[in-house]
Amino acid sequence: MRNIIVTLLLPLVFITTMLQGCGFVDIDTPGQIDGKKMYADEQGFEDVLTGIYATLAKPNLYGRQLSFGFVDEIAQLYYNDHEAALTTLTKTYDLQYRDTDVRKQIDRIWESAFFTVYTINDLLQQAEGKHFAHLDTYKGEALALRAMLHFDMLRLFAPNYSRPHELSIPYVTKTSTQPSPRLTVDECYQHILADLNKADSLLALSSAKRTPAEMYVSRYAIKALKARVYIWAGNKSEAAKYAKEVTEGPYRMVKEEKVLQLFMGYAATSECVWVLNAPKAYLDVRQAFYPARSTATCNMVRNNYKRLFSTSTFTPTNNDYRFQAYFTQTNWGRPIVAFTKLYDKNYEETQEWQAGRIPGINMIRLPEMYYILAEALYDTDRNASLDALNTVITARGLQPLSFSEIATPERFRQVLVDEIKKEYWGEGQIFFTYKRFEMPMEGLNSKVFEPNDATYILPLPQSEENKD
């Protein structure tokens, strides 16, 4: 069985940089972390966890590549014709995963994820035997973050749950220089769910009031993650159970025209279950989608977006506000369509974030729970399934669907996938949706990417691939 060795240097550099101002760095031994001092009180645990959240919001993880960047680029949403020669971006569109430049992006995603896991594991190990008022909160959040990171690495680097006994990725739970063995797909799911269950139990015991609540992993965020994991594992009853608990929580779909102000690089107000505070992501958003002129690194919206949104059917009473909120016609020497869902033009002009709003990356939003409910209930309660789907559709300004429009499983799946694409463009969920349903992807220039391992399983990093 192959093993994976997680490099330990970068987490130490990260912790050192983050905590120098807190007095946790050993002055007598430059570069060494004084672990006893750093974790001597509750504040130390909170500071490290704050640093972990900040790391998740960096470009190699959810601050770009796992949200509006790499995983959306390989989902065939964009094109770039700035240069005649192949570029890293155009090779990414073409799923040339083993190309040197594309591979570097993949390697950095993997390494950043497991560096963060290492830091989480260090926090959890340091917490053993300690008793502080809110330590259960920090442990619970850390476990949930560990589960989420492993789940997303599993979704990228391993087969679907339909192949449960195949080797996938390691599930790293210790800070050790010893190699971590790769586990089967099913074994990884069991570890992910175990961490989420333990995280939920710890937060249930906690008296801490984290504010604003949506900036931290809450019990509702854990339930949403469980719903996401269970639907991937094909356990529809458990997926529906947890998705329903979230929809019955304090979150609400905004109404129609308010969608126009819902995103723009901010937490999605009443729909947001969890957001990462990421004010610097704005720079990458602008570079990727709305530079002053066309560049070799910007994503331009493909012409088929109007077909997806069925714009020819729009009327005054059937008008998808997402279409208006997400895309802008502009001119870079020729007419193009820019993706502006995550772009705040007002901030560009004033350099001030809107008062009362959190600039960041939406990690979990309410519509996903309704989509999971619709899918999970389709075979057993067609009325409830349709109601869940229409909850999102009508909130976005469209007329409700009828039973005839989802009469067969095939038609329902296509409606569901199209809805997810319309709702989650720019949020890193579309590639995963294609993969889970094992659907072909329509590439550029009439190319079709078939639903196979070459399309949907990223290669392990070069530094790990040949280790035994």
TrEMBL record:
Cellular localization per UniProt: Cell outer membrane
One Pfam family in the UniProt entry: SusD_RagB
Coiled-coil ranges (or none): none
GO cellular component: cell outer membrane
Entry similarity comment: Belongs to the SusD family.
Signal sequence, start to end: none
Superkingdom of origin organism: Bacteria
Residues in SusD-like N-terminal domain copies: 45-230
SUPFAM superfamilies recorded: TPR-like
Keyword Membrane among record annotations: yes
Protein's name according to its UniProt entry: SusD-like N-terminal domain-containing protein
Location of the RagB/SusD domain: 338-455
Keywords, alphabetical: Cell outer membrane, Membrane, Signal
